[in-house]
Amino acid sequence: MASDRKKEILNFVEALGKSCASDASSFDPKAPLVGLTPSMASLHGSLRQMITWVDDFPPTNASTARFGNPAFRTWHQRLLDRSNAIITACLLARDSDLTPEEASQKGWDAASGILEAEDDPAIQQVSCYLHDAFGHAVRLDYGTGHESSFLVFLLVLSKVKCFGETTQLETLGAITLSIFDQYLQVTRRLQTDYRLEPAGSHGVWGLDDYHCLPFYFGACQLQVIGIDSQLTSPNCINDEAILKEFGDSFLYISCIRYIRKLKKGVPFFESSPMLYDISQTMPSWDKVGRGMIRLYQGEVLDKLQVVQHFVFSKYFPATWKPSQNERTAPTENFRSPTPGGNPAEIPVTRAPWATSGSPSSLSTPPTRAPWTNDSDVGPTTAPWAKQT
What we know:
Layout lengths: L3 H17 L17 H19 L14 H24 L5 H13 L8 H11 L9 E2 L1 H16 L9 H25 L3 E2 L14 H9 L18 H7 L4 H12 L5 H4 L1 H9 L3 H17 L2 H4 L81
Parallel strand pairs: 1-2
Helix pairs in contact: 1-7, 1-8, 1-13, 2-3, 2-4, 2-7, 3-4, 3-5, 5-6, 8-10, 8-13, 9-10
C-alpha cells in the first residue's frame, strides 16, 4: 500500500490542508469566486449548475425504499453526457483572460448543455474521475471513495495548470475552501433528495456517513492565527449559537451543523460519538487536523474496498509492478497421458487392500452382507420383484 500514487494523494491532501491553515487563506461564502483561477471559477459555476439538475429529475416514489432513489441514475447520466463539456470549459478558461465571474458563467453554460465539448482524447483521461465523484449509479450509494475520486480530479487539473502556472498558497487555500464548499452543496443535495446509501459507513462508530476530507480541511482552516476567540477550542462545536453564526464560513463547523440538522432530535453524543469525543478530548485544532489525516490514510487509502475502484490514466498512472506473476490455465489434467506414454499406461487407483495384478485381471467382488454365503450371492432385487 506504499505506492507512488498513494504518496501523491497524501502529499496533495496535506498541501491543501496547509493552504487552509495559512494566514493568507480566507473564505467568504458571499464572494466564493475571490482568489480562484479562471479554471476553478469555471468548475465552481458548473457545480452550481449541477444542483439544479436535481430539480430536473425529482425523486420518484420516494416512500418505497429506505435508500437509493432510481431517479439518481438519470441525474448521473446527465453528468456522463456533459462532463466533457465541463472539463472543456475549465481548459478554455485556463488559456483565456476571463475574469472569475466570466469563467464561472462559462462553467455554468457547459453544465447547462450550451457549450459543446472538444473532441480531445486528453479530456477522456480527466472526465473519468468526475464520473465517479458523485456516487455510484448502479448501487445508488456515496462514500469516501467517491469523495477521493473528486480529489484525484482536482489533482489531475492541477497537473494541467488549471491551478495556475505557479500556485500561490493563498490561491490554493481559496480553491480548497470554495470548491469543496460548493462540492458539498451538490453531494448533500444528492444524499438527501435521492437517499443515497452510505458506502462503507461504520454508523455511529465512524466519523461521518459520507465524508472525511472536509473535516480535515475544516480543522486546518480553524488553525489560522487571529481567528475569532470563540473558535479556538474544538469544544466550540457544541454551541448552537456558534454553529449558526459561523457555519457558512468554516468547513468543519458547516459539517457539524449539517449532521445536527440531518439527525435532528438525537443528542450529538449519541449520533456522532467520535466527533463528540474529539470535541471533548482534543486540546487544539492542530491535534484534530493531524488525527484527521491519519484517519483518512487508515480508513480510506489503506482500504482495498476503496482503492480498488480508482481509475488509472495518463495523469494518474499505475507505476507499480504486480505482486504476483500472471497465472495461466493448466495444460495438463488428470486425464492427460503421462509424458512419453499413452492413456492406457495410466496406473489404476485402487484401495490399499486390493490385490495386485493387471487392470484387466482385476474383478470387483460383489457387495454382500456378512451373513450371506458365497452360493447365495445373486442380484439384488426388491422384495416384490418376480424371479425370471
